[in-house]
Amino acid sequence: MTTEILKVLDNGYVRLVDVLGSDLTVANAARVSYAKESFELTDKDIRLIKFLAREGHTSPFRHAMLQFEVFAPLMVARQWWKYVIGSTHQEATGDSMEAWNESSRRYITEEPVFYRPQPNEWRGKPENSKQGSGDPVVEKLGLYYTQSLNDLINKAERLYEAAIEDGICAEQARLFLPSYGMYVRWYWTASLQSVCHFLNQRLEHDAQKEIQDFAKAVYYLAKQRFPVSIEELIK
Fold this sequence. Notes:
Strand order of the largest sheet: 1-2-3-5-4
Largest sheet: 5 strands, antiparallel
Helix content: 40-55%
Strand content: 15-25%
GO molecular function, one term: NADPH binding
CATH architecture of the largest domain: 2-Layer Sandwich
EC number: 2.1.1.148
Distance between the termini: 29 Å
Keywords: Methyltransferase, Transferase
Radius of gyration: 21 Å
InterPro entries: Thymidylate_synthase_ThyX, Thymidylate_synthase_ThyX_sf
Protein name: FAD-dependent thymidylate synthase
Structural class: alpha+beta
């Protein structure tokens, strides 16, 4: 079990929990058709991996798995989750072996943590799109909305704590907490191919910046373990 971890945003992180396989796993999964096996990654194996990626022969990349623990705002988690659900039904991935287990405030009452953008982190609307974001807003506006968000969160936390103290069940008391900025924790286990599909989608310039930041952390951690495959699959 690994403990590699990268901090993201103000309170978030991505931790690589466990890994099954390596670049050599990919090469051997492809080579089993000919009843052959390599015991050390060679230039020949690397050429094979490049061929597989280039020609879209994706099944060998599904024999390697990565498991991550992620702590991110709910708005990031829901974007991520929509990707996971969608990707299991796409022929592009062919991957139906992803797993997702998330913390629930039906059962836990630990102190909530919220994403609080700094005044210089608020972004304006894009000029030529109905979604996404544009340039940073002026400092005065950023200061106003950071303070407004802090006030809202502080009031919500007081109501949440009061409800718990008065005996309201946790699954209803959580209604007082602002949801989209609240941090949640989950485990995500996926094949190497599925991880790369996620990265190709969420590293794009038009992805929401916050999920881009988490995707960059996943990319860095995955590339340490699968340097050849990641290089070929992430374009």
